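Prompt: I keep going back and forth on a fold encoding question. Comparing notes only helps if you start from a blank page. Show me how you would write down a chain together with its backbone fold. Please set it down just below, with no commentary around it:
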Amino acid sequence: MRTQFPTVDDAPPLPFHPAKSADPIYDTFFHNSTAPRLNTNTVLTSALRKHYPDLHLTITATYSSNLLGFAAAGHASAIPCSTAEEPQSHHGPPSPTALPSDLKWRRYIPPARKDALSSGYLVDNVKFGRFAYTWTSHTYILYNVVGAHSVYDDEVSYLLSSSAQANDDLLLAAGAFWNQLHDEILVFDDGYWQKSHELWQSVQNSTWDDVILDPQMKVSIAGEVNKFFGSQERYKKLK
């Protein structure tokens, strides 16, 4: 007797059948996310090239060139674009088949240090977003997507413009900016390294007198720190 394995047809139906949005790329992502998915990047790359045949597509890891962070720092403009059709009426509850206009998580970030005057702040983690992006004289379409590409979910940017050179120029500028500290301190928190301008501000008026350590250890550490920063010219020559 042969064992009968379940097939796709045997799977229970989805709890709802989402309506199509105004953006076929979003439809592809949403459909891929509600079924077993092998590689979001492969699926979206195919959909983007089909929907934007006249534009150049460049794909990059967000941690390499954070385009939204580059825009948030004032070096570019990123305007969110809705991916869903506008409803016919604003009265009554939303339709259970309507797609959300975007996918993002609202997240609380605690203050850099215990400060009675600060209650922390909120940030949006974009899971799927489409943006009208402008940098210098160039305009782009940017999709920022968190999808399954391996064991872990990866955040990927899909950049579209009229030329491959325009894409590369933007990625170089954003990558160079993101790779430097701008009045910030790197902090390992919540499982990853992140920049903290608040912590940098909080230590500007600090001195070694504010450091609570064994006196001999403090003198030793302060000496090593001063020796390190006093040897900058030597390190430059060793590059």
Observations:
- The longest helix spans residues 164-178.
- The first strand starts at residue 56 and ends at 61.
- The CA atoms of residues 29 and 216 lie 59 Å apart.
